[in-house]
Amino acid sequence: MPMFDSALELLSPARDADIGIEAINHGADAVYIGGPAFGARSSADNSVAEIARLVRHAHRFNGRIFATLNTILRDDELERARQLVWQLYDAGVDALIIQDMGLLQIDLPPIQLHASTQTDIRTPEKARFLQDVGLSQLVLARELTLPQIKAIRSATDAQRCTLEFFVHGALCVAYSGQCYLSQAHTGRSANRGECSQACRLPYQVVDAQGRFVAHDKHVLSLKDNNQSNNLAALVDAGVRSFKIEGRYKDMGYVKNITAHYRRLLDALIEERQDSAQPLVRASSGCTTFGFAPDPNQNFNREFTDYFVPGRQDNIGAFDTPKNPGQAIGFVTQMGPNWVELQTSDSNTVLHNGDGLCYYDLQKELVGLAVNRVELLSQKKARWRVFPKDAVASLTDLRTGLEVNRNRDAHWLRVLDKKSSSRRIGVWLHLADTSQGIVLTLTDEDGCSASAQAPWVAAQRQLANDPAAALEQLRQQVAKMGNTPFAVLGVQIEFSQPWFVPLSVLNPLRREAAEALEAVRAQAFTRLPRAAAVQPPAPYLEDTLSYLANVFNHKARDFYAQHGVKVIAPAYEAIEELGEVSLMVTKHCVRFSMSLCPKQAKGVIGVQGTIKAEPLQLINGKEKLTLRFDCKACEMHVIGKMKNAVVQQARKALAEFSPASAARSAIAVARD
Questions:
Q1: Is pTM beyond 0.85 here?
Q2: Domains of the chain
């Protein structure tokens, strides 16, 4: 296996085992997947048996499977979580992704532990602490810049922990683990996998004087993450695990995006193979694709590389949280049940079942589902489109309007089929001995296995045409069929030009391949569990607020052992009933709307007139206050928990955790 700090890991998501298997087939070095509970995606759960099936497939290629157990846990859930971890370990899972530090206080198997994005790793000090308490892989906050990532790598030990970074997918506007909007408004906790996605809603933005700054804008909705152009810089900064977001995503998304980043990482590895610090893949095998990967083909809100190159003012998807797709042409005519389009590129082909869309006069995205299409003129690139819905019902559809395609039916049909092949390279050596013919397979990882056919079966027949027989033998022995192997080279060493019939060669090759798979399985090693440093590393501070997400007594014990004196319970404990920060985010509405005092600094006639005064967000009856911490360059979304949510949550706590319910009742009385 490759050295720890030279290996690049492509880490893909899986909603279920079948998607996980295709992620491995399309080049993933590792896959993360939710178990039957506690996985921070409430509708992406999987049985232990299904995860075991995925594990078996991944391990054939020295791939790894990481199980997510990254919600915060109530006291009554700790024992069930402990039992689940043992079941996952017995199923062969390689690592556990966690948020709740209480898990470090219970009897776990020697499974490797990784820090979830929910642990909110933004500083070198936080990263060093998590490394020192025994976490072997740290997924960093998405908001970090390259210099900040480098600083974290400098503060941690590359031989003790790997840095993981999200390179693609949907972006949470809040620092992960620091959003309580869903809990406050609906009782569904994002820290327990039930986010209601209030950040994707439209809001009125009102200033301190009551003036409208924005009308029905999705000001908390961000474009999707895409770090395709930054991979080399991220490697140089110290990132070694490249994570794709999307445990809710479908098979086509995982196939396409995994293949896209597989190609980019392989190109980077190839580019640096002769450098002073060569890079390697974290798993075995080479993947070939039956399609050209293209991230634009999947659902996206347009792309941003977020804060990696520094703060930018175009990270928002403020007009719509939907998929706007790619511009393909313009409306030229309209009929009673059809729309004529002229495509901008004559090579663009429309298909029955495509999804088209456009912006109406209010800048809202309107969908136009295609029933069937007719090509009117290849030369003029004109198409007649018959929508599924009545043309008259399509708001503001008119001639001259630009149309996008956000669903390519042909593309989706390609990905519905077998679209990749992953094989492990092997060298074949065929030789004769006094006992018979021996076929030896040696793979790219150095594993070797042999199979022998006795002379009784081969009958020691000499070939009539030695040269032709040798070439035919070379071709036949290299046919690896449905095995996970691909032949890199064939060496035949016979003392005589023997003729080997297929009835002998085929079972010999099959037996050798099965033996090599068995050897590889025997050679596979589990990831080690890191030991915490002793004496226990002190935590960064001695006081923790609700933002630390401490929801059970084991988590409280953990922080107490690491020197914390005052530990407030998690927001989900229903003790913070007044106005608090319901979201902490690096995204700044003022900056995105060119209302930041720092942007105005030095501008004649403007300097001093723009101040970081609070703004208000309004959606129906919901009102939130935006406050700006300019020193930290952060925004806080301020609000309070609804009374109905408080009452509902208190009943739930009384059922599951009487002690927590009692503390909550005291807090309500105090409030």
A1: yes
A2: 7-170+223-283 (3.20.20.70), 172-218+542-671 (no CATH), 322-416 (2.40.10.170), 425-523 (no CATH)
